[in-house]
Input
Amino acid sequence: MPSLNIHRNDTVKVLTGADRGKTGRVLRAFPDKGTVLVEHVRIVKKTISSKTGQRTKGGIAEHESPINVSNVALVCPNCGPTRVGFKTEGEAKVRICKKCGQTLPTKK
Ligand SMILES: [Zn+2]
Output
């Protein structure tokens, strides 16, 4: 089972694409695809077409679409966007900031 360095509820910064520079919370992670869904990032507008014969108007629905984890950086509370390292604390493997060494807790 592949795992990602980035988990749900992490704060990440987008490095590439139209939303470059934006930061957001990870809504979902898809380890098998290597992608994450980031709040307010890569918004896709979908037009909902009205059905023929009905008076209801079609509308536009906006929702996020997943982006590749290599296009985002985890944001360290101390020093900002960073790379993730690992260390072992007792039995547990924890994520650390590669810049300042701060432990990056996984928020549930
Ligand atoms: Zn740091």
